[in-house]
Automatic annotation (TrEMBL):
Pfam families linked to this entry: FCD (PF07729), GntR (PF00392)
Entry annotated with the keyword Transcription: yes
Keywords associated with the record: DNA-binding, Transcription, Transcription regulation
Key word Transferase present: no
InterPro entries: GntR_C (IPR011711), TF_FadR/GntR_C (IPR008920), Tscrpt_reg_HTH_GntR (IPR000524), WH-like_DNA-bd_sf (IPR036388), WH_DNA-bd_sf (IPR036390)
Gene3D superfamilies on file: GntR ligand-binding domain-like, Winged helix-like DNA-binding domain superfamily/Winged helix DNA-binding domain
Molecular function per GO: DNA binding; DNA-binding transcription factor activity
Highest taxon of source: Bacteria
Gene: pdhR
Protein name: GntR family transcriptional regulator
Boundaries of every HTH gntR-type domain copy: 1-69
SUPFAM superfamilies for this protein: GntR ligand-binding domain-like, Winged helix' DNA-binding domain
Spans traversing the lipid bilayer: none
Length: 223
């Protein structure tokens, strides 16, 4: 194992063992390096690497702290990586969406508060009668993000959010080239919203599957 990797692993062990908790400040660099049997350079590289993936927060003039370790922070790195997708991998991202989003939608039907359900309907009502493709896609992203948050599972919500970028272009392509795509999207959104409001998780899951699968099937034919 490389020296820097060993340093990363030791800091990770301090966090996973509970020796360092979210929000805790790390010991001074010299003290921590001596304690872990590492050079200060190796420790510095490890801290820099862990800061890049939001495990540590380096505050100039103050010290280095463990972050909150919330899922949205830790999964930001994945969002950064998936932004490098190629067009031929979009189908793979849509396949993952087809697994995750119906599950999140079913959970939202059980866990969303009445106020959140009203807000979901308000998102749909905010869409103009004759939206542009860009307006529809923006509304689509808001709609699905709200449902993911309503699932009550922050990890699932963060995973779905990280997949939004790679599939946005496919949604725009479909809206521009497939006749009736915008009307289909609006209708499916209404059916999903109604199923959530009625607290019918199986129906909500089914409509979410149809919704994502529609984009996926269109892209398969197009490619």
């Amino acid at each position: 194992m490389a020296v820097t990797d060993a340093a990363i692993d030791r800091i990770k062990q301090m966090i996973t063992s509970g020796e360092l908790a979210p929000g805790d400040r790390l010991p001074k660099e010299a003290d921590l390096a001596e304690r872990l049997g590492l050079s200060r350079n190796s420790l510095r590289e490890a801290v820099r690497a862990l800061a890049l993936i939001n495990v540590l927060d380096v505050r100039q003039g103050d010290g280095t702290y463990v972050t909150s370790l919330q899922p949205h922070l830790l999964l930001e790195a994945m969002s950064f990586v998936v932004d490098f997708h190629r067009d031929d991998t979009v189908l793979q991202f849509l396949e993952v969406r087809r697994v995750l989003e119906p599950a999140a939608t079913a959970m939202a039907a059980m866990n969303m508060s009445d106020e959140d359900v009203k807000e979901l309907r308000a998102i749909l009502d905010a869409l103009p009668d004759e939206p542009t493709v860009e307006e529809m896609v923006t509304n689509d992203l808001r709609f699905h993000r709200h449902i993911a948050a309503g699932s009550g599972n922050p990890v699932l919500c963060s995973l779905i959010d990280s997949l939004s970028g790679p599939t946005t272009r496919a949604r725009v392509w479909r809206g521009l080239t497939q006749e009736g795509a915008l009307d289909d999207t609006r209708e499916q959104h209404v059916m999903i919203s109604d199923a959530i409001a009625a607290r019918r998780p199986d129906v909500a899951r089914a409509w979410a599957t149809v919704h994502v699968a529609g984009v996926e099937e269109w892209l398969r034919r197009t490619l």
